[in-house]
């Protein structure tokens, strides 16, 4: 048993490192042929109305994500104010996207919630429900798009269209299994590394699914809009979902490079690389960097307030 516990993390780290190196080499290969002047010109040519709409959609996406922690509040029953929960979730999400899940999604959540007086077991349950909410919507959307609307994969792609559709069916089965367990009433607590996790009821699981699906759909809408509608929405959604899981496996903060590599590989036969990179640079500016600036100010305000008043 000790050997198994040692090998699994080592194998996971090795796979992540391998994917990271592969992505880096892929980016280096494509970067040599990219007209960076043209890519920056694409960013500069984004109209004010496009950027304004992208910013509005980003605000809506962050609002949906912040509601994930309200689901946790409902299930845990803690008495923090709604504003405190939303502020903590917003800061965590912005830092998560830019600095990685361990810093933003985990460490920052524990720090902020604990300073507000929440117990570690309650924070763990809120975090687990937030993660489950995010990936539940992913399972349903990725399963549906891969099985029904798979993107046109380049020749020689290892998985192939049939493999991608099979993966879609598997993801759909996982999403359905989660919902069935939640609705069945058979919701035995799960034990993981000394922590106990309780699955929500069926209606709450449906709220999780609705929030998460809406959030993923909004993110894809932002990218599709910045691409100027040159690629159909379902294809953009499929590629984004592939890039999302690739970024998690590679363990790169904000999926830096992974997002671009996946879009280039899957869509460079449809658009010039400069256009793809220009749109993705615009996406990172609107969806990652702008919220991070706001989140930094909120974080400093929360830290100052808790230092003055102490945990409640």
Please give the structural blueprint.
Layout: H1 2-31, H2 36-44, H3 48-76, H4 82-99, H5 101-115, H6 120-148, H7 160-184, E1 190-192, E2 195-197, H8 202-226, H9 233-250, H10 258-267, H11 273-309
Antiparallel strand pairs: 1-2
Write a structural description.
This protein is mainly α and 312 residues long. The protein has one domain (15-309). Helix content is 79%, strand content 2%. The chain has eleven helices and two strands; from the N terminus they run H-H-H-H-H-H-H-E-E-H-H-H-H. The chain has a two-stranded antiparallel sheet. Helix 1 (2-31) crosses helix 10, helix 3 (48-76) packs across helix 4 (82-99) and helix 6 (120-148) crosses helix 7 (160-184). It is globular and about 55 Å long. The termini are far apart. 37% of the residues are buried.
Quickly count the helices: 11
The low-pLDDT segments are 1-8
Strand content: under 5%
Strand order of the largest sheet: 1-2
The Rg value, from CA coordinates, equals: 20 Å
| Overall number of strands | 2
């Amino acid at each position: 048993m000790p050997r198994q516990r040692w090998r699994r993390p080592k194998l996971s780290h090795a796979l992540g490192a391998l994917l990271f190196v592969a992505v880096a080499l892929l980016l280096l290969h494509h970067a040599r042929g990219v007209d960076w002047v043209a890519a920056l010109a694409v960013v500069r040519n984004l109209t004010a109305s496009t950027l304004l709409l992208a910013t509005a959609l980003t605000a809506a996406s962050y609002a949906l994500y912040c509601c994930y922690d309200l689901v946790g509040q409902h299930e845990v029953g803690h008495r923090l104010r709604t504003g405190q929960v939303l502020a903590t979730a917003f800061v965590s999400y912005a830092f998560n996207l830019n600095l990685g899940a361990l810093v933003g999604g985990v460490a920052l959540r524990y720090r902020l919630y604990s300073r507000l007086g929440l117990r570690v077991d309650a924070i763990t349950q809120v975090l687990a429900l937030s993660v489950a909410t995010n990936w539940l919507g992913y399972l349903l959307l990725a399963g549906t798009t891969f099985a029904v609307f798979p993107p046109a994969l380049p020749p020689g792609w290892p998985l192939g269209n049939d493999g991608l559709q099979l993966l879609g069916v598997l993801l759909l089965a996982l999403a359905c299994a989660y919902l069935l367990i939640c609705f069945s009433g058979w919701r035995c607590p799960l034990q993981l590394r000394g922590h106990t996790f309780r699955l929500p009821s069926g209606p709450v699981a449906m709220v999780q699914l609705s929030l998460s699906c809406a959030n993923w759909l909004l993110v894809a809408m932002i990218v599709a809009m910045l691409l100027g509608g040159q690629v159909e929405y379902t294809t953009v959604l499929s590629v984004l979902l592939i890039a999302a899981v690739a970024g998690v496996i590679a363990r790169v903060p904000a999926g830096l490079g992974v997002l671009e590599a996946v879009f280039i590989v899957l869509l460079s036969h449809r658009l010039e690389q400069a256009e793809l990179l220009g749109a993705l640079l615009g996406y990172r500016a609107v969806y990652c960097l702008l919220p991070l600036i706001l989140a930094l100010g909120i974080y400093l305000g929360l830290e100052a307030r808790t230092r003055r008043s102490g945990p409640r």
